[in-house]
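Hi R.,

Here's the chain you asked about this morning:
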Amino acid sequence: MGTHKHMKRYGLILLTSALLLLYLGGQSLPDLSGTTPPPPRPIFGQRSLKKSGQDYHEPQEGLAELTTEQQHYGSINNYIQSVNKPKQKYPTINDVKKYMNSNYTVLVKQKGSQKIADKRQTSINYKRQDVPLKSASPPDYKPLKDVKAQEPSQVPPRENVPYHEILKTQPKSIQRSMPSVSRNAVAANRSNSILAAKQKIATSKKPKKPDSLFTFKDMKSLGPGHNMSRPLAYALSTAKSYLNYEFSEKKFPFIPVPRPGATFRPETANKMDIVGNKPVGTTLKPSEARHILIATTWRSGSSFFGSLLNSYPGAFYYFEPLHYYSRKNNASLLESQDKMDFLKSLFSCQFNTQNLGFLHHVAQPANRFLFKNHNTRMWKACTRILPSEVFCFLPDFMNSVCPLYPIKLMKTVRLRVDETRKLLEDSELNLKVLHLVRDPRGVFASRREKAIQEWCKQDDCAKPENNCANLIKDLEAARQLEADFPGQVLVIRYEDLSLNPVQMVKSILKFLDLPERKEIMDYVDSHTSRDKPQIARNKKTKKVEIVNNPYALARNSSATAFKWRQTMPWQDIVDIQQTCSEAMEILGYSPLADESETRSDQLPFQKSPNDLWPSPVWQKKK
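And here is the predicted structure, written out as tokens:
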């Protein structure tokens, strides 16, 4: 079987050779002895030359009249020329990218380049779809899609180029008429791509946790035997746990800081020594709690002083409650309650329909700082109870959480000292009034800062004559109230508090009949020894910078009190000294004679705290 198959193959070879001899016209083969045998069928370049209609072993047109030897050498020469011809450079990805960035090139479709043509066409169409052009394409410019659809014979004469010239630049006349891509359009496309990428990343992130622990449906009562809802019970347990930690003798790391929702156990409650050793969690009556009012004016150091006293354990801080009364759109709500009655209701923890407008006012996003930034003890207990922090402004919560705290502290710059008489007459409150004063030159140096001038435009704030007239009236009213209510009014000079904060805080605690606590002394040390820089991002340059915050509480107190001597223009100092000469003399502030005294080491005040306001609290313990 195997021999028979081989014989068939040899027969076919002989038959093919005979047919080839007949095709050559019966001529005898040349004697090629002593010459180089014809090369084998080439592989390199074979495909590209076939595509152009040529073949290495087929005689080209015009060689039929030549001899067989000439035909043979003609084929060899043809082969040598094809081998020496430079290698054809097929299009690469970089060529495609260059083509995409140019609007002046045409892609010629040839057989065998289908894949490259398809890839380029897709990329270019996508590019043109994203980047808008300034004007429409010229009439003689044909899209690539139309060129691709044509057969090679239908391509315009200039585009009917050899296969190896795949990319061809159009004439300059067409280049000049082609629209150019705007830089703004490219930048817009880039920003849109970045925005789309950010949105894609944002959607791929894990879903955020809900911002509240309960829903409004949970506000229903727990059932028989219970008088409060689950959210309210959770908030009160958190508030009691924090308060119990404040009155514990040992702190962190000996006792861990409570977490929101921590369970409060009455049997583990600590004693509150400032209210007769009542246990934490007791609902205190107004007569059992301590009530403190700080009365002052704008930019007198009241924010620092209020925050200092708020660091005392168990303080429930009302920061600027009369901010509610300063808004004209609340005028209709103010008719039902007098200003002093409103302040008494806050001291007594009575939130009802008469002062409900105050909670509505504080609940507005622009006013939430009144609670969020200052009454931190209350805010920790209510911030994540219901959506949008709405639980912090419910009367039921305020009526339940406020009586737990032994100290009710209030600070306001919108109240004259003589108006406090009605509160001092209420024996149930046993109110203590702290009147804070400051050098008018330092007050107006602060009020004339750019950030303060935006809102300090009314006469009582912007004009020195109005401020100094009110300063004299308040000091006279404080003396009269001290005579009528001995031991309940104290005048404090901001400069004394800045120069000697430790001793002044001890004297103030003695006046308030509060024992010294480590928490408030630590606050004095951390907020009066040095400036703490605040870092913020510049809205214009987008760079992170160290900024000067006029509302900062942590500062070098001694340097801040007399900073006006370096920052205030000399002429402004002279004008304020002339306008406020009487008030400065009463408070013990010395005027500057000339500009050189602004650089003097001598401090510009004379009277001591006891000379300004005689009181036994200024005497040091021996």
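One quick note: Confidence is low (pLDDT under 50) at residues 42-73, 103-159, 163-178.

Cheers,
M.
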